[in-house]
Write a structure and sequence with these properties.
Length: 59
């Protein structure tokens, strides 16, 4: 069973995009580009911060 974690090895800021990329099986760069596009809106930035707080770090 897969679990969502913030990545320790593939992180740029908090590891959220790296963790989501590993969970979904997509290159984290694609997830980072999508996060950048959503980050241009206020809700995208808030969603990233909330995800960084809620998603646990990889063990």
């Amino acid at each position: 069973m897969k679990k969502l974690f913030r990545s320790r090895t593939n992180k740029v800021i908090c590891g959220v995009c790296g963790g989501i990329g590993e969970y979904v099986g997509v290159d984290p760069t694609v997830i980072r580009l999508l996060a950048l596009l959503l980050g241009c809106t206020g809700t995208g930035l808030v969603a990233y911060i909330v995800a960084a707080i809620i998603i646990p770090e990889e063990i």
